[in-house]
Amino acid sequence: MGAIPAEIGAGVTFRQTVCLPVHPAPDWSVTLIMRGASQIDLPGTGQAENHELHALASVTKDWLPGHYRYELRAVSGDDVVTVETGEVRVAPDLMAQAAGYDGRDHVRRVLDAIEAVIENRATIDQQSYQINNRSLQRTPLGELLKLRTQYRAELAGKKAAKNGRRFGRMIKVRMT
C-alpha cells in the first residue's frame, strides 16, 4: 500500500503522514503533485523524520473532482527523486452538491441501467420493429445477462478491494 490513499475528498481536511526512511525530514522535503481536472501541488512539512501532507477543508473545497495522476517527490538540495507514483480520485464535496446529485460511480450506474433494461424487457415482446423508414433493435437478453454478470463481478471486486480483501477464486492447498 502506498503513502497516498486511492481517494481524497474535496471539502474535507486532508492529512497524511508519509514515512520515507531513505528520504527523512528534515534532510529531505516532499511535495505531492497531482494532475487531472486541475493542477494541485501540496508541499509537505517535516514532522520529526516523517513528512506530513496537510490541506485544510477550505483549500480542498476548490479541488475539482475527477481522476488524477500523482507523483510524490522528495527534494534535498539539487537532488529530486520520485518516491511514488499512481492514480488518485478526488471525490466531489458532498456538501456542495444540489438535490438530485447522483454519487454512484460508473460501474454502479451501468449495472443499474442494465438491470433496469432487463426488468423492462419482461413487458416487451419484440426484439426489433420498424415504422416507416425507422427501425429499432434491442440488445438480445443473453447479451444483457452477460453484461450484468460482468458488471456485478467488477462491482464485487471494487467492494472487496475497498474492504482490503482480494477478489477472485480461492485455491485451497493441503500440505501432507
**Counting H and I runs of at least 4 residues, what is the number of helices?**
3
Q: What is the architecture of the largest domain at the second tier of CATH?
A: Sandwich
Number of strands: 10
CATH structural fold name of the largest domain: Immunoglobulin-like
Radius of gyration: 24 Å
In what order do the strands lie side by side in the largest sheet? 1-8-7-3-4
Q: Helicity, in percent?
A: 10-25%
| C-alpha termini separation | 34 Å
The major beta sheet can be summarized as: 5 strands, mixed
Number of domains: 2
Shape: elongated
CATH homologous superfamily (4th level) name of the largest domain: Immunoglobulins
Mean pLDDT: 86
Low-pLDDT parts are: none
Estimate what percentage of residues fall within beta strands.
25-35%
Order of helices and strands: EEEEEEHEEHEEH
CATH class of the largest domain: Mainly Beta
